[in-house]
TrEMBL record:
Residues 132-230 form the DNA mismatch repair protein MutS-like N-terminal domain. It comes from Stylosanthes scabra. This is DNA mismatch repair ATPase msh1. Gene3D superfamilies: DNA repair protein MutS, domain I. Pfam families: MutS_I. InterPro entries: DNA_mismatch_repair_MutS-lik_N, DNA_mismatch_repair_MutS_N, MtDNA_mismatch_repair_MutS.
Amino acid sequence: MRTLSARNVVVLLPRWLHRSPFPPSSPAPPCTSFLPSRTLITNRHVGKVSSFKDRKALRGSSKATKKQRVPNNVLDDKDLSHILWWKERMEVCKKPSTVQLLKRLEYSNLLGLDCNLRNGSLKDGTLNWEMLQFKSKFPREVLLCRVGDFYEALGIDACILVEYAGLNPFGGLRSDSIPKAGCPVVNLRQTLDDLTNNGFSVCIVEEVQGPTQARSRKGRFIAGHAHPGNPYVYGLVGVDHDLDFPEPMPEYRVLQGAIA
């Protein structure tokens, strides 16, 4: 019986193939081994790896999208009015060096910095970001920030220094960096006079003197303001200005004692 059953199976196989569900027009699929070949396994493995990488890349992109934060220098209506006010002052500048600096301004923040240029980053913790915080408190004043032995100005304020204080821009007129200008500490008094005489108010930011810890930025604070009607800052005496002290007044003393 076993032999007959085996023969029947062999004999009936062609009939099963003849009665296959495939239509007559389409050829029957080739007979292959029931064990998958190594090539198919490899291809499946590669396919899984690639799809896994794609899913991982998609997850990474979604995470990156979630991590994107709204920049903290987004303009509001008040900041926009101050920027337009400064833009009107920039349009009357005529010096060739100032005109070249104006091409590198971007009126998207109160400093007028283009973040795509060299030294134009406004990331938290940078000096530019710190100066932007001071500028937001007094948006219509020229900001002079103490950095070592200089008082520096950036962006719009640097253009004001070049135009009205006769200062040269730092780094020359290279077109790949933000506008930057300043004056030595000993020339601060003259710079303030030039700016106030031309109708500008100035905010002076000092840095804390003395040793600092390693990898720590020096603290800074607003030391005073200079205005056209009051150009002198309390506690500020230029080295080229001598203080005239009047002659001491005579002293009168009244002695009280017992009368004999």
